[in-house]
Amino acid sequence: MPSGKVTLPSPKVGDGALDGVRLLQPETMARMRTRLYDDAPDGAGIAHGFQARPMFGTMVFGHAGGLNEFLSNLVVLPEIGAGVFISQSGGAGATLPFVGADLILARLASEAGLEAPAPQPVPDAEARAAEVAGGYIPNRRAFTGPGQLLAALEAFTVTALPGGAILMPAPILGTMLRHDPVAPDVWQSASGDRVVAIRDDGGRVVRLVDSSGAFTHERVRLATNPAVLAGTLGLAAVLALTTLVGLIWRRGLR
User: How many angstroms separate the Cα of 185 from the Cα of each of 20, 47, 55, 125?
Assistant: First the structure.
């Protein structure tokens, strides 16, 4: 599969120019940072390939990914012309590229005077947390073939905590994090990562948008639970096997 790269030595390329030479028009840069589908404006999303995440009272853009044990992460904060890129290989875990980049950017944002606004009170926070609590499964998974059975291994549970907080795994790392309510149907961790609940027209919580900007998680129900499908197939296999054994037994082939 072909691949390629472009290396730019200057951080000034964030506005579409490099050392005084304009590579992209400002309008193009602004469009690249515009979300294609924005059903959760208070949470993370995707803007033309960039993961757009609300942090430090503004929007942080970037993209992360990996191949086997090779992991990379780019985060950019246009307001202060700063960006961090970390690439790692060797199976040392995802903490350095995915957490380290955010920590460095947080320090730069603090020095520049950027700060997230104080969370607003959510009077019905506990009720909303109770509505969010339950099982979820990532929407980035196999929906057909044998691979869909493995999706049952990716399911996780969101737990409601006192005061309207929720407990759920962090993206990529999978560690359980506490998220406190900062707005209706919006929860935020101590590091600034947000989780947003999406409701249907009837007001029911149907999915969660996590802080990565690349993942949403569907509410697990009977019809969408891969564990139910796996259990049904397992039960069918047992019944088929016992039927065959019974047939052999009745015919005296012992």
Answer: 44, 22, 17, 8
Q: How many CB atoms lie within 10 A of CB 10?
A: 10
* Of the candidates 71, 53, 70, 74, the residue with the CA atom closest to the CA atom of residue 11: 74
DSSP class of residue 95? Answer: H
Give the separation between CA 2 and CA 33, rounded to whole angstroms.
Answer: 26
Backbone angles phi, psi at 246, to 5 degrees: -65, -40
Cβ(7)–Cβ(16) below 8 Å = no
Identify the DSSP state of 4: -
Token pair of 240 as six digits: 């088929």
User: Which residue in this structure is represented by tokens 């980049």?
Assistant: 101
Q: How far apart are CA 63 and CA 214, in angstroms?
A: 9
Closest CA to 195 of 165, 154, 162, 225: 165
Mean pLDDT over each residue of the chain, to the nearest integer: 82
Residues in CB range of 160: below 8 A, 6 or more apart:
126, 129, 130, 132, 133, 166
Average pLDDT of the segment spanning 177-198: 91
Full strand arrangement of the beta sheet holding 70-77: 45-47, 50-55, 58-67, 70-77, 82-88
- Residue 146: how many other CB atoms lie within 10 Å: 8
- Biggest distance spanned by C-alpha atoms of the chain: 90
Put simply, whether the predicted model's pTM sits higher than 0.85 gets the answer: no
Predicted confidence at residue 166, as pLDDT, reads 95
d(CA 235, CA 248): 20
Tokens representing 74 are 């780019």
DSSP 96: I
Extract the tokens encoding 82.
């700063």
